[in-house]
């Protein structure tokens, strides 16, 4: 199943052409060209912070077992690109831990996004194990959200299975750009995503494609974005993961970047030349959400669980990772849009009026189920750029007895 392709050639207005030419002249004039080089204007998605994406398969073949599985796990989807994982290797056993130093603070006070992110990494690891000829038995560790030991994966020789999802691992990127405005998504898309849940009756998928459901969800997302921006602590905790300086980006190899915002090459080039304040970043985020991401969504989808316990969140992360990989393999664009869920957690933390929880419960009336994850899906108009990744060697925790 393929999304509809737009065969029309992009039209560039005279004004846009002149603006681009002027911007190009500014970039290459005087000493600005050197700053442009230093800030990576001409090297989007390249450099040490992106090595994990480019050579992961060749590195997997050369790396000693079971390091290749870690190299696949670190390419998983994760909130704010905080990469909150650590791994311990002991023979044919891999332990997955939460790196609580990478908690998102007031953006994730209930650790919901951290555990969903860890579930995404676990799913990639399992897919890579099967592709390497191993059967992977994953056991989720007991305990509450305070426990950092997430899962133990026991590897035994098995049948080699290189799946469609495994092959999509290096091509799965969050697409924050405008999606193509197709007439309607095929009904088979919803069915395909639903099928990826499998026999797990602890995760449910809500599909919001028809009006007024889709526009209502869009309004909730926009209002949640405004609420986060207006919350000084949430705004600060979100912005601290933004990597503007190229030297910092390649040193940290994490966080959000201008290249991954879905902006045009011209906007990214100009943006890299000047400092970006928290206020400027917030206004750009709101504008992109309101004017680009919400209006061009083909559909919104939500994952729900009957319990918000750690195991349920991890399983939901595994489900989303499968969905995003399947979408990448079949030509669909995906972007998590968890602003409403982040505000629900904040309301709970601060004992605020449950405005966003009630809004989502009214939109998706499933008594006894909790909405924990929101994303949009549609036909891509652009090829998304990768986000930074720390190498597998940097996420090994050797000091655990």
From TrEMBL:
Picking any one GO molecular function of the record gives: oxidoreductase activity
| Classification via InterPro entries | Nitroreductase-like, TAT_signal
**Database matches in PROSITE patterns:** TAT
Which domain of life, per UniProt?
Bacteria
Parts of the chain that traverse the membrane: none
What Gene3D superfamilies is this protein classified in? NADH Oxidase
Q: What's the protein name?
A: Twin-arginine translocation signal domain-containing protein
Q: Could you tell me which species this protein originates from? A: Paenibacillus pinisoli
Give the source lineage, highest ranks first.
Bacteria, Bacillati, Bacillota, Bacilli, Bacillales
